[in-house]
Fold this protein.
Amino acid sequence: MRRGTVCRSRQCRPDAGYRPVGADRRWSACHDARVLRPFAAYLRVYEPLAALGDPPGQRLVEAVSAAALRRAGIGWREQHLWLKSQAARPPRLLPAELTDGRAAPGLETDVLVLDPAEVPAGHPGDGPFVCPLEMRARSASALATFLTEAPPAMKNVVLEAGGVTPDRARARTKAALADLTTPAAHTLTTTWTVPLPWFVLIDPNERKLVLGSGPDDPLREASWRTSMSEAVRRASEASELVESTFGESGPGRVLARTRHWLDGFDPDSVVELDYGGLVQLFADPILDADTTAEEVHDILDALRSGNVEELGELFSELREFWGDVAGREHAN
C-alpha cells in the first residue's frame, strides 16, 4: 500500500490513533511517524447531548462518557472505515454499514466529544457537547451528489464496480441519510485547503495552536471554536456584505449555504474550524505565523470601507498562500 496509508513495518493497526469504546488501552498514534493523517480540514458543530435524543440512547450516552475518539484520530478513523468497506467481501456500498445495508453498530458510538475546557468562554449552554462522526450518512450524501452530477459513463463504471443498480444505490443512500438526527451532517470536510468563507464564522483571536514536536506529531493542532449564536451572526452579516458587493455567486453562495447549514442545529451548539491533517503541511514557523483568519476579517473590513487597494492585496496574498498548499496535492 502507499506510504502514509498504513504502518510501513505493519506493526500497527490501520486505525492507530483510535481507541474503541470500552477498551482499556490508552490512545496512541502509530509508532511510525511517517504514517500521515489524511490532508483534510473540518468545520464541525458540537451539539449539547440533550439535542441528540429525548432522551439520548444509552449507547450514545456511554460513548460520550468514554470519549474514545480523539480529534487527532478522526482522519485515520474515517480512512479505516472506508478501507474496511472496500476490503469486505462483497464490498460495502458505504462505509460503516453491514452487508445487508443496515448501519454498523459504530453509528452511535463514533462521536467526538468537546472537553468543557475547550468550550468558548461565556458559552450559555450546558455540556457535554457532541459531534457524531456520521461517516455512513456523509458518504451517502456525497454519493447522492455523484449520482446526480457525474457523467453517465463515469456513473455506470462506478456502479458496475460496486455491483449495484442506480435505483438500488439511490435507495441505499436515502436509507443512510435517514440516520441523521438533524437536517444535515454535523461535519463539513475539504481536502488540501480550507474555504476562506469558513474563517468568517470564528474570532481570529480564539485560535488554539499546538505545534507539538513537529508536523508528524499526532497532537499537532490549529483550530478555532465559537458559539453558534456568534457564528450565525457573523455569517449573516458577512453574507449580506459579500452579496451586496459581488452578488450571490462565489463566496456569497458558500456563505449562504454555510449559514443555512448552521440553522439546522441547536442554538446552544459550538462551532469548530479545524485544520485537521493540513497541519502536517506546514513547518512550525509558517503555522505559527499563519494569519489567514485575520486577513479574511480584514477583507470584510475593506469591503465595508470600500478600500479596493487593500482588498486586492489581501485577496492576492491569500490566493498565493492557499494555492501553494493546494498545489501539493498534484505532487502526491
User: Anything to note?
Assistant: The chain is about 40% helix and 10% strand. The longest strand covers residues 40-48. Residues 1-33 have pLDDT under 50 and may be disordered.
